[in-house]
Amino acid sequence: MNNKNIYDTVRLNIKKYRKMAKITQQELADLSDLSHGYIRDIESIKMGITFSLDAVEKIAKALNRKVKDFFEEIEENDE
Questions:
Q1: pLDDT at residue 4 in the model
Q2: CA 38, CA 29: separation in Å to the nearest integer?
């Protein structure tokens, strides 16, 4: 997949790892101490918002992943 920017890569990976963990956006929000709306906005390609590395770190901890995992390119069949 040829992502438009690094934010799209990170947001797709967040969604992928959240689904792999079988948790909802609300559960991820609770685990990462971020709001449900913010998690929803981060995961949405259409929103186009930017987000901080601090938020990515909180999400990574909540999903038991390394921050670098979220910066890896996603294959089309992984989505």
A1: 65
A2: 8
